[in-house]
Amino acid sequence: MDDISIDFLRDENINGTTLIEGLPGIGQVGKLVAEHMIHEMDAEKIAEIHSIYFPPQVLIEKDGVARLVNNEIYRCDGERELLFLVGDYQSTSSEGHYLLSSFYLDIAEELGVRRVITLGGYGVGHLVDKPRVLAAVNHSRLHAGVAQAGAVFTQDEPGGGIIGASGLLLGMGALRGIEGICLMGETSGYLVDPKSAHSLLEVLCAILQTEVDTTRLLERAEEMEHLVEKLRTTEQAKSDEELNYIG
Amino acid sequence: MDDISIDFLRDENINGTTLIEGLPGIGQVGKLVAEHMIHEMDAEKIAEIHSIYFPPQVLIEKDGVARLVNNEIYRCDGERELLFLVGDYQSTSSEGHYLLSSFYLDIAEELGVRRVITLGGYGVGHLVDKPRVLAAVNHSRLHAGVAQAGAVFTQDEPGGGIIGASGLLLGMGALRGIEGICLMGETSGYLVDPKSAHSLLEVLCAILQTEVDTTRLLERAEEMEHLVEKLRTTEQAKSDEELNYIG
Amino acid sequence: MDDISIDFLRDENINGTTLIEGLPGIGQVGKLVAEHMIHEMDAEKIAEIHSIYFPPQVLIEKDGVARLVNNEIYRCDGERELLFLVGDYQSTSSEGHYLLSSFYLDIAEELGVRRVITLGGYGVGHLVDKPRVLAAVNHSRLHAGVAQAGAVFTQDEPGGGIIGASGLLLGMGALRGIEGICLMGETSGYLVDPKSAHSLLEVLCAILQTEVDTTRLLERAEEMEHLVEKLRTTEQAKSDEELNYIG
Amino acid sequence: MDDISIDFLRDENINGTTLIEGLPGIGQVGKLVAEHMIHEMDAEKIAEIHSIYFPPQVLIEKDGVARLVNNEIYRCDGERELLFLVGDYQSTSSEGHYLLSSFYLDIAEELGVRRVITLGGYGVGHLVDKPRVLAAVNHSRLHAGVAQAGAVFTQDEPGGGIIGASGLLLGMGALRGIEGICLMGETSGYLVDPKSAHSLLEVLCAILQTEVDTTRLLERAEEMEHLVEKLRTTEQAKSDEELNYIG
Questions:
Q1: How far apart are CA C63 and CA C60, in angstroms?
Q2: Domains of chain C (ranges plus CATH)?
Q3: ipTM
Q4: Which residues from D are below 8 Å from B when comparing CB atoms?
Q5: Which of the residues A58, C96, C129, D202 could staple to A66 if both were Cys, CB 3.0 to 4.6 A apart?
Q6: pTM for the full model?
Q7: For D76-191, where are the E strands, in sequence order?
């Protein structure tokens, strides 16, 4: 078994100029955006990636069929040549993160990719009413365009840098001359956050100069709001009861 | 030293069509079933596997003889060509799980195996009166036969997928065209569970269309029941005493 | 991707006879000294090192540009041929420490280095008024010169030896015939410690028979003293208030 | 840098028929015995072993000279061809334990070794008045001789097998046809235990049919007894004081 292996599901129409990474991470923000786009743009799976750096695990799908955890590449057919990198997990080890990101950049180069856009969440530890979209780039010439699309560059955020594929694809991409943009939706970090994903998607669409129907993401954001509201009410009720009891 | 090595103890009659994996895991359910079958079917050890991915340890056997921890392959002589994979430990590392499972599938292919059946426990966190046998397969065409044999496919179980050799042999087997079935006996997860093993064995026998004497397993299950009952009584007595003391 | 890779930023004037290591460590003492010298001596960056043994991370620099974490080599142009090894992180793994240090010694040998001076902190667990500079060497013939420069050799310190690059460059250097000196500024271990760095710099300058303006380091040391003093006063005030409250 | 490397300090008289391993472990029992024998038998260091599987560390020796942590082979000149394997540390990783033990057996085979005797402690969790010496072997034919020398073979001890080099050299040695004996001095596991080492040494001498002056070991054992007695008295005094205070 190779440490990392890729299986292409078709031979033709696999090239792309932009790779959008939405692997699991804080608030699942990047994953939500990438999977939403794959669904709305009717992107098609073109490759599956397996690796000893993923957890040693299968997931159970419908009909009780087990599937090895993986990362997948989707491609948007038609005039826009977008590729999407999504998946179940990132690496379990520090070295694996480097080796997987290096592998992804090899594939990206082979497929003609000239720009990588990585998506993630930026955890702030409290619920956010109007989530900002923070950005980082791997070349200063990309700064203006990304800011114009509505992303925010701040001096101090994210303080600890960017960890995992979202960071490495930018840092290692720069060494190979591949342009890189990282968009991070502000999020509490405690919950899956479709609202933050919605904000991020708007910025991403502006960068890509495309439009994507956001209805489903907005619906999920509203469901989440209701859920949070319900949890709050229950907690408040509990707290009131306790006060009555004590009083 | 190779990272993984196998020593065959004989050259002839080592082929098999079905490999049954019963390595250590939750409630030792898979291990109990595989070892019971090896004993009842008079299967013979045909190979020993050593690896740097096992714990760095020897076990002491009779006469104080130390033996390197290992995994072993047994084979059932005669018309049924069953192979059994059992052993002291699974891998100590995430990467090792992948590399060992890959190695096992290499061996399985060499020996002519077309189907792998992996056995394990499914921990539910409480004592189970009538343990169900959950199942997963690596191809939807296997679903009906396994269900007919008495195994249960549910939408939500096991939620986190299947971890370790029991999962990987299915997931990685699928990529090689080897059929895979995973049977998981419901169990508390706290105790070695021969009752769950007994339930699992019945389903396995139905799948294999064979019969195995289950007397010894039933006896162990009864011993375990008595042990649990005794523990419960003691705990109850303690608890009563404490109440008396307080009262 | 190589496990460790170096990119030289120029081809000429890259040789040096002494390599000064100031990677991150206890109290950031070594890092402070090396970075101060690089600034004061106007040393120029000649190489960048990337490795899968560093954390999988990018840092954000001005204009929101992400940079892969790295180690860097600076060189002091002119008659003194000093090289500096500085960087964001040391290895994340035990094996990585060995492999990186071995790599650094390979580079050092190629560049003509005959002596390595490693800088670090020696954590004592309490604030130190007049920090001593402890030393270790990798050959007894170096002892006298280092002691004469003001460093202290004690029987019992550091008790656990020296961990990481500062230790390995000495130990592994000895096996290759490269002279090695380790200077450790006494420090609490709780705070970044420019005062300890200042003491260490004085000893280092005596060893190198050079002079470096220490004004900026002294200023930072004073700022740190004020900060500590302020923290102490606040703590005392809080403590007094609490006593009042209780009383 | 090789993952494991050995440097021989001389070319002649390096062969041996028996290798005695006394690396660090529980109660330092094995280390105490091996180092005592090296001293008493005037054994000479013939090789140093370095490895990325040891901690990334140097130790400071006299004159402040740093030395890379290592394992060492000593040899007893003269008619008895004994080799000793001692050192600062065992492996930091599970895989490293296997790779180092495999390396040691390669060296042993090259030097003509036909028998390995590994020394260790067996932690029982309480102070032991008359420490037994437990044993394991890697072939049943060795059992009688070892028992006759005074070692004890019990059914249940050590329950978890033997971990690290002491175990692996037996288990892996068996696969190569090298005889292996493991002697384990009973010890609390909390303290360095020269008394247990003394018991172990007596059994080892009987096996080797040799005599070694045990005076120094007995002296250290007595010092340790006094220390323990003193600690006990102090604890008792403290405890009495507290009772007085409460009373």
A1: 8
A2: 4-214 (3.40.50.10900)
A3: 0.92
A4: 91, 94-95, 97-99, 101-102, 135-140, 143, 153, 158, 160-164, 167-168, 170-172, 174-175, 180, 182
A5: A58
A6: 0.93
A7: 82-87, 115-123, 133-137, 162-163, 179-187
